[in-house]
């Protein structure tokens, strides 16, 4: 991304970024949070923002407050934060550092939620998914006891294979804080299986336990990493950590549920690591680590970590304190592909209706995917009405059968044809209109789309 930023970037403030967006040839509409990490880097500098030792001083806290206020005044939705240690910096200078927001205490940022509450804006965040207890910070921040509730949304509510208790527990906690705490709190949920694709150990999920984190840290030093993998002590620690039953986990770490999709040794394809280990009379972890040394990213595999039980979809889809709005595929372009999760939800709901066991009405399904979210995020969009801007997607219900869990490899030409995983749903989308103009029809973008014509706009928060 750096060469593209060096070529295109001309903004240094929220207002200037909005101006840039408004004059750019957008295809679809854009609504935006301002990132807490961005604010922290802006006022502290990157070096100081990435340590536990340095905290923002009073003047820097005031600068962050001023920048957030400017963003909200320009129509930004709110503030997006990150307390999860898995998400790391990239590049050469700060490789494997956690993002700046992680190093910020809630005491340091306390003025920011106060401003969001005053402006009726949104606090969005990801809690620490290792310790999990700071999820309470987000819930309590939303509470409206003796004050105005703060719209707060947190990632993510899922039926985890590795931790079946978290789904009902987070549901109970969300209901309790909204009902008893007079909060305006929402989880975010993907409505489909949360399937992850790995190239070797190239996935954020390995950040969840120390041995996996050590492998990821050495991703640019393969010789050193492979020496670490060969170390018997490291292997023993890896085996202990991967089978810990009561440690908080998102990834189930079950190598029997991990299916190899590609490998130079074609006899591996279609099998899981347990099967291969039995064939070779090895411990599954030893087999797994040996293949990483031998093939690195050339061995590709996949596993589903959440939302595998379709019988749970009815409660997930109808839970009033979540938003069907979480994908994460845009952040992990080689590991996930459910950009089409709204279409998947529509297909699942329609299939249930056709089978005589409805999850919900189709009208409610569409509302949950559109108007509910437009209203909650304070955006003037998400529904059809006379006088409103005509942003419309037309779906062919006869083609819903083409929506599957299959993924393909596509490229992003703007990023030097960087590969990513994509979804294809042939024939499902008949037409897409933005501001009353057709941009997509019959599985193809219109001539000139993505070049100089402007269709979309910056969606400002409605105060």
Automatic annotation (TrEMBL):
Keywords: Hydrolase. One of its GO terms (molecular function) is hydrolase activity, acting on carbon-nitrogen (but not peptide) bonds. This is N-acyl-D-glutamate amidohydrolase. Coiled coil: none annotated. The keyword Ligase does not apply. The keyword Hydrolase applies.
